[in-house]
Design brief:
Elements: H1 35-53, E1 78-86, E2 94-102, E3 107-118, E4 124-131, E5 133-137, E6 140-143, E7 154-161, E8 174-183
Antiparallel strand pairs: 1-2, 2-7, 3-4, 3-8, 5-6, 5-7
């Protein structure tokens, strides 16, 4: 049998290590670029951009000059007359009926009054704020927005109070007009 003096060649076989050879320690190179600061600056720029493009609240408009403001109704143009107490079928409720006169030059489509109930000793016991409604017939009433009171017009009205204070002296409460709304006639 003949042997060939050539040894077989195997490609890419790493050479054997000896017992003294250890793995080499590789040093990781640190970048000199300040990445954390860069990320903070980019993040702040993104937040500022988002805040800049977010919708803003409504813009405050300039108020119109005196000549442009339509004339508004005032409590002085509302005159309440012939006020009287009407019995209510419900225990603690109270109706006040009377006549409302529009003494102004704008149509009235809403009136609110404040009633101050007085006790037996003459001191105020309670205060209630209620809307004024147009009286149609009996205890049928209609909101003033559905039938505005024109200038220099009279209209029967009704004011309903659900609860009256127990210490009330059962006299007509003191009425103060607190709000009036209107439209142009």
């Amino acid at each position: 049998m003949a042997t060939s003096p050539k040894q077989p060649q195997f490609p890419n076989i790493p050479p054997r290590r000896t017992g003294d050879a250890h793995g080499k320690v590789q040093i990781i190179k640190k970048s000199k670029f300040p990445w954390p600061i860069f990320i903070l600056i980019v993040g702040a720029a993104l937040i500022a951009g988002i805040l800049y493009f977010l919708p803003r609240g409504p813009h405050v408009r300039n108020l119109p000059v005196g000549a442009q403001v339509p004339q508004q109704p005032v409590p002085g143009q509302v005159q309440l007359t012939n006020m009287k107490i009407e019995a209510s079928p419900i225990g603690g409720a109270l109706y006040l009926s009377g006549v409302l006169h529009n003494a102004g030059n704008t149509a009235i489509n809403g009136v609110q009054v404040q009633a101050q109930f007085i006790g037996a000793d003459g001191a105020p016991v309670a205060t209630q704020t209620r809307p004024v409604e147009a009286l149609l017939s009996g205890t049928n009433y209609q909101d003033l927005t559905q039938s505005p009171i024109q200038p220099d017009q009279y209209r029967p009205i009704l004011i309903y109070f659900e609860h009256t204070p127990p210490a009330w002296n059962h006299q007509l409460p003191a009425l103060t007009v607190t709000m009036v709304t209107g439209t142009k006639p």
